[in-house]
Amino acid sequence: MVTKSTPKKTTTQSNAVKAAPAADYKQSVAKFKDSVLNHLRTTIGTSPAKASKLAWWQAVVAAANEDIFGRLTDTQETHAKNDTRAVHYLSAEFLMGRLTINNLTNLEKFDIARDALKELGLDINEVCEEEPDMALGNGGLGRLAACFMDSLATCKYPCVGYGIHYENGLFRQEIRGGKQVERPDSWREYGSPLEVCRPESIQNVPLGGYVDKQTAPDGSVSSVWHPATIIKGVPWDIPVVGYRGSSVAILRLWESRSTEQFNWDVFNAGGYVDAQAEKSLAETVSKVLYPNDSTEAGKELRLTQQYFFCACSLRDILRRYNRTHHHDYSEFAKKIVIQLNDTHPTIAIPELMRLLIDEEGLSFDAAWDIAQKSFNYTNHTLLPEALEKWPVYIFEKLLPRHLEIIYEINYHFLNDVVEKKWPGNNDIKAKLSIIEEGECRKVRMANLCVITSGKVNGVAKIHSKLVKEDLFPEYAELWPNKFCNVTNGVTPRRWLLACNPGLANIYNEVSGKDWPLNLDECEKLKKFADNKDYQDRFMKVKHDNKVVLAKTIKELVGVDVDPNAMFDVQVKRLHEYKRQHLNLLYILSLYKSLLENPDMDIPAQVFIFGAKAAPAYTLAKDIIYAINAVGDKINNDLRIKGKLKVVFLPNYRVSLAEKIIPAADISEQISTAGYEASGTSNMKFAMNGALTLGTMDGANIEIVEKAGIENNIIFGLSVEEVQSLKANGYNSWDYYNSNSELKSILDWLDTDYFTPGQPGVLSSIKRSLLDNGDPFLVLADFASYKDAHQRAQAMFKDKQRWAKAAMINSATMGIFSSDRSMHDYARDIWNLQSKNVD
């Protein structure tokens, strides 16, 4: 039944600005234009006649910074004056992307800046293309941290984000001959106008050396660390602007430098290279995101990175605290909360203990009490290999004092807690111990996090359940109230308002202008999901976004795609559990069917991939090569009449995601059930009107709860079925031998059909699924996955049915705003209150 109701007309965000007296708006445009021109001359040092687009971008940032840095100062002064309790978010990754348009949007100055530049003969989108992505993260974890910072600022929660000022972010991916090639991503080679250095807050970080015992006159014995070297941590602050400038938070990133920049004596003696050795060694610490840890040197560097940024951050936290509290730590846990984003910052726990005991003179018991009340831990994975374990011998070499503290924490835990609960049970002690015994003894960082933290949370309902029941069941038995859930979220400012202005305008009309602050307001669109006019408008926005993406695809990879086709998208880190190779097998199945019957009555489909594989992850790189090789063959095969295209977009990053996500019809979220903690791209896609084709895994479950299973395409084994199948002995060969189509597709990979003259180049994928046991059950889910695609094709042909489902998905995603996530953390974990800026 088609509803006849019509929404109350309200101004769009764009029109809201212009609804003010025209003279006021014109004056704002003129003022911003004058500011840009002034900064072009006086800050950048050039003139409009010869300025490059890079110079124009720098001038636009400088103009926006006039407002941003003023609000930042107001925010900091408010929190300092009121001695507010604050959260300190420690994360090895912050995948910030580009900030200029996001900042202007959050300041509600984007239209003003756009029109100001237009008067200068410039397109704001072209100018802002000059901004490099701040790719200081690997994927979902880092992007989540960026969304959280946006929401913390918007919701006015006192906070500081802490991370590493990587010289090179996640590598820049090039595709050569279909294969991934990694290149450095020097995002700030010539500096960045988006950040400011704070030399007054430099910290010195000790490393290596040895520990000895010293006896005081009163007979007490203390440990004294004699470090071998000192690394200087230089802070760079990146302002994070809350929506409508409600507050401006700080992301503080630490750059490593040598305490001695240059050895003149060595240089003058002719040792020109050796004179720089210490400087080069120190700067290596913040050189690269996630150095390859397959070598001993790589392991040492990665642990050094983690310690470096945690040590700098904790010293900074103590410095801020002591400005008011003057080394009285009785109030520390009341004023300071520290969130560990995964296990990467775990070393912060013994470092805080060391600072309090060795440098501030507290007893072990007092320091341990403070640590337990200050730290909380977010778990992001159930994969055992992702729960960090560091060899004890590396700790002995790099962090000998911290190892002592970890041993003492472990001793008290095993003897005071575990022994009391399970007396005489050495098996339980071995399992729960922070130290893993064996040929190479290791420190279990996740165990240390759980033992110390006041709260441990997963990031989706199903994930948190598995964390408690499967990953840490004994800890949950010890501390049942320690474990909780906070489902992830994404910021609607970047992932709808800024990246999809056409859809944002529909919501401005239907939901009012405050929906970016309360995403639940978007649910008002649901009552128009059967309205033909609104369906047409909604799908017109989608089509326009597909036109833009089609142009980008042509520019990047030279492939022509039809915006009327169904855009089926899988963009995320390349990993076997995310199962890009399951997607590939279905593409091969569809291609095979089209070769047999080119006149099949199916909608034209474009499969779009974006993914980076870890440099040492051979199979993941093989899958990228296979996608490109298969795509090259399919895209140039005239026999299938353009009904199928396959596109791999190189160097997937935030700015590319902002073009891909609004254009997607299908969101591929096909991880093996029980392996994806949450996912956040699934939320972004649904928010922008894509249907989820996925397993009941991570946040997919909660998306389906809100949008309805009838409006998405669910397939595959459940978590329980996966566990049962593995427990009863999964044999992938059974599926290969019993399904002739599956067998023919896998055998196809052994031929040279897609790699002329090179048979077997793609065989590693087949071997992983058969000889290596198919650990993520690709073959077990293949038949169900194929059926899901056939259902999607049939549904896509029913334009009104599809439009209704897309609208309902978009309208019901209010719960997946990262603002809601922050409110959950603040209420259930941090005991944190928002604070209006004076």
Automatic annotation (TrEMBL):
Allosteric enzyme that catalyzes the rate-limiting step in glycogen catabolism, the phosphorolytic cleavage of glycogen to produce glucose-1-phosphate, and plays a central role in maintaining cellular and organismal glucose homeostasis. It comes from Succinivibrio faecicola. Pfam families: Phosphorylase (PF00343). This is Alpha-1,4 glucan phosphorylase. It catalyses: [(1->4)-alpha-D-glucosyl](n) + phosphate = [(1->4)-alpha-D-glucosyl](n-1) + alpha-D-glucose 1-phosphate. SUPFAM superfamilies: UDP-Glycosyltransferase/glycogen phosphorylase (SSF53756). PANTHER family: GLYCOGEN PHOSPHORYLASE (PTHR11468), MALTODEXTRIN PHOSPHORYLASE (PTHR11468:SF25). Belongs to the glycogen phosphorylase family. Its cofactor is pyridoxal 5'-phosphate. It comes from the Bacteria. The keyword Plastid does not apply. Keywords: Carbohydrate metabolism, Glycosyltransferase, Pyridoxal phosphate, Transferase. Its EC number is 2.4.1.1.
